[in-house]
Amino acid sequence: MKYRILGKTGLQVSQLGFGGIPIIPLSFPQADSCIRKALELGINFIDTARAYKDSEEKIGKTLKALGMEREKIILATKAIPKSPESVLQSLEESLKLLQVDYIDLFQLHNVGNQEKLDTSLKIVDALAQARDQGKIRHIGASVHGVEWVNAVIRSGVFETIMLALNFIVREPVDLVLPLAREYQVGVLAMKPMAGGEIADYRLAFKFFLELEDVIPVVGIKTPREIEEVVKIVEQDSLPTEAEIREMDRIRHETGDMFCRRCNYCMPCPHGVDIVTINIFPSVIKRYPWQQMLDSGMGESLKSFEKCRDCGECEQKCPFELSIRQMMRKSFDEYLSLIQQ
Question: Cys-Cys crosslink for 195: which of 84, 120, 261, 334, Cβ 3.0 to 4.6 Å?
Answer without folding.
Answer: 261
